[in-house]
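Chain A, query sequence.
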Amino acid sequence: VFTKEELAKYGPDAPTIYLGIVGEVFDVTKGRRHYEKDASYWYFAGRDSSRAFLTGYKEDGLTDDLSGLQSQDILSILEWKEFYHKDYKYMGVLEGRYYDKDG
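Chain A, predicted structure.
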């Protein structure tokens, strides 16, 4: 179980890069060219920015809060989560909106 502070240590400048999506954490280091500083998806690194999988980089999208979204939009974000399960190493869960400190 990661805290937000722990996940932030694996941001776009870190040697190992993690991202969160809907409370699940993935090691995306093998895709570094996409997630490192100044890359296309740097804003996903070191945080759970689930909403940004729909909105792209916007300040209000850099959140794990999916409230107010349509069902189809949430399904689209969940499809992204499945992509990460298939292509990247699952590392655990993020304490907060979707999981408590015990997972």
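Helices lie at 4-8, 32-35, 52-55, 71-87. DSSP finds four helices and three strands in the chain.
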